[in-house]
Design brief:
Blueprint: H1 2-11, H2 17-26, H3 29-38, H4 44-56, H5 60-72, H6 79-92, H7 95-108, H8 114-126, H9 130-139, H10 145-157, H11 161-173, H12 180-190, H13 196-209, H14 216-228, H15 232-241, H16 247-259, H17 263-275, H18 282-295, H19 298-310, H20 317-329, H21 333-342, H22 348-360, H23 364-376, H24 383-396, H25 399-413, H26 419-431, H27 435-444, H28 451-463, H29 467-480, H30 486-497, H31 501-514, E1 522-527, E2 530-535, H32 544-560, H33 571-574
Antiparallel strand pairs: 1-2
Helix pairs in contact: 2-4, 3-4, 4-5, 4-6, 5-6, 6-7, 6-8, 8-9, 8-10, 9-10, 10-11, 10-12, 11-12, 12-13, 12-14, 13-14, 14-15, 14-16, 15-16, 16-17, 16-18, 17-18, 18-19, 18-20, 19-20, 20-21, 20-22, 21-22, 22-23, 22-24, 23-24, 24-25, 24-26, 25-26, 26-27, 26-28, 27-28, 28-29, 28-30, 29-30, ...
This protein binds one DNA strand of 10 nucleotides through α2, α4, α6, α8 and α10.
Amino acid sequence: MLFSVIRIRGCLKRRFSSVSCHLFDEIPQRSAHSLFDSFPERGPDSCESIVIGFAKRGNVAEALKFFRGMIGFGIQPTKYTLCSVLSSCSKALDRHLGSQIHARLIRIGYEENLFLSSALVDLYAKCEALTEARRVFDGMKEHDPVSWTSIIAGFAQNGRGKEALIFFKGMLKSEIKPNCFTFASIFSACKEIESAFELASLLHALVIKLGVELNSFVISSLIDCYMKCGEINRAILLFDAAVGRDVILYNAMIAGFSQNSQGEEAWKLFIEMREHGIGPTYFTFSSLLNACGSLAVLQQGKQIHSLITKMGSDQNIFVVSSLVDMYSKCGIVNEARLVFDHSIEKNNILWTSMITGYAQGGRGADGLDLFEQLVKAGMIPDHVCFTSVLTACVHAGFLDKGIAYFDMMENKYNLIPEPDQYACMIDLYGRKGHLRKAKELMEHMPFEPNAVMWSSFLGSCRIHGEIDLGKEAASRLFAVQWHNMVPYITLANLYAEVGMWNEVVEVRKMMRCKGLKKRTGCSWVEVNKRVHVFSVRDGSHPQSNEIYDALDNLILEMRETGYVPKPKYVLHDVDT
DNA sequence: CTAGGGTTAG
């Protein structure tokens, strides 16, 4: 290494920039730095080479530092340098410096330069200044694939998929053809819209037509989109056909399997990628832990945890949140707390994971205690966080505290309560026997009550033997969820508990008329006084509608064998 | 000599 430095220093006698490209390949960047300092004739050429060299190699901080330095020396940067620096600004999310460069560019004129315009569009898009990005884009005299892709990616990455798709339409109308970069962005925009699957299929055809179907960026984006639509088989087809499987492709598959409750498959792929010596990365860990939580397989979760520690990934905030979530879901809240305490960086999501862990583990008081600490730590709680807090109140039966926190949302944090938080309050009032109050809340909130609210309300009616209100809730549920058995069963139980046997028979008859039948292939276990439903076929843990359907049948089955479900076994307790 | 892309947590 030393020899390289000496050799390069020899070359540098006359021109620094002539060797600067090689310089970065041969010696560490730290040495490049000191070499520059020791070089006697620091002119514009050498400064620019250093800036571009660092920028090109992704050392954004150094590139920006040198750029500031050269401006301080009064050296005028060329457009080449400004282009590199803009890219570094966008990576560092330094909108301030980026705007200053923009101002400089306006003075010297840049509209004809596609490189500079695209870099500006990208900068503003990455810094979430989409109006500004659009202004630059619209001001361009002509567009190329890069500028189109920059504006499309900008909207897609900021959760504005619809607008991204409108730009994409504009691109298709123009002479410019989308390339693999464009498609990689467009599929992430796709998954946000209603008819995602239909559109993705159409665009998939276009991908093949334009011959970019082998690009791994396009494939992983497409796989992710299909997975989010629940089209697991399509994703598998794409994955099997892919030639060079990189770590992101594996991660996309593992995340997809986890999101679709196919924990076993996620694990199989993880083992496969390890056999091929690929990864894992932070992304792999968080997806895989997600799968552990839903399978409630603690052993595997612990194995991953030790691997994470071994690889030094135990301070990544995504990984930590997943660990907390996994341990909580496996019922070891104390272990989750240890991981939480050990994490140096703590954001809103991590705090919320931990509060949820306490709430769902039946330790509502600890959850609320943690929330107070969150506030003391200077964090600003958001909607999801309040859902956790209110859930903790529901589990602990803290009515007054629940009301106080609910009011606090709007009074202290300017958060307008959403259906999720109203649902908690309806549940809380209902369970405490304040059914009128719960009903009042449903009638006066700014939106229509949803199925979750009616379900919990019906459950509360059953606990407190409120026939009339229960009947009404059940009929509302029958209207929205005709395929769901839960309201029928709850209503039947409600009648049964007060001895209205004729009505029980009526409800059973209604169920039979609707053709609601028992589902096979599911079983249940009781762990920590909670019912867990799982599929016998693959051991996976069904979610949402599937879990409700399965649970309906199980409760029926249990009742038929003389098992009387307690209130805590109503559906919203099981959906964890 | 300069520009654009895919996967993760409550």
